[in-house]
Amino acid sequence: MSTLLERINRNHIFPPPRIEEVLNFFKPKYMRDRKCNAYKIFRYSVGKECKRIGESNVTLIGRATNHLWKNSTIQEKSGYINLGQIFQSFQQFQTSNTTPNTNRHRFMILWPWEGNPEIIELRRRIMRLKLKILKLKPRVEEHEVKFTNLEQRDKEKTNPVAKLDDDIKEIKKAYSEKES
């Protein structure tokens, strides 16, 4: 497994894939039966990378996925978590439909080309906005970290500057006393 981990290019796994690619991979049948979460999308990305490098052993891919997920930073995971939330909100656009033969509820996905055109356009706008939020969230977190670091540096610099100001005042005071 260690050789597989060495061959995996993390740049192909982070950042996560685009929402369109995820929607195309997790077909409507899959969306109907199970929840899709951040880890499953991550597993898809690792599997795609393993396929690219020629690894097909499912057990090794699963172990590599677990290892990479556990050792990923919160910032790396947040992209997948946000993507999972967007995907789940897309799933919520489904409507419940009872089939005449059974009492079991089945779900039909309202794809963008089905239904009322005004609702479709609103859903597209919502998805675009959620994608923009997903793209901007890591930037905001990055800027918050940079701002915190700058504040810390500023505090560290103000103490020596204040000491220098005090020293200058004392020198001026001592010099003025010598002159008089």
Distance between the termini: 82 Å
Quote the average pLDDT: 78
Anisotropy-based shape: elongated
Briefly note the structural class of the backbone. mainly alpha
Query: Sheet bearing the most strands, described?
Result: 2 strands, antiparallel
Count of alpha/pi helices = 7
H-E order: HHHHHHEEH
Biggest sheet strand line-up: 1-2
Low-confidence residue ranges: 94-113
How many strands? 2
β-strand percent reads: under 5%
Fraction of residues in H or I helices:
over 70%
Folded structure, characterized:
The protein is mostly helical and 180 residues long. The chain has a domain at 2-111. 72% of the residues lie in helices and 4% in strands. It contains 7 helices and 2 strands; from the N terminus they run ααααααββα. Strands 1-2 form a two-stranded antiparallel ribbon. Strand 1 (95-98) and strand 2 (105-108) form a beta hairpin. The relative contact order is 0.10. The model is unreliable at 94-113 (pLDDT under 50).
Which tags fit this structure?
2 strands, mainly alpha
Summarize the structure.
This is HMG box domain-containing protein. The chain is built from seven helices and two strands, in the order ααααααββα.
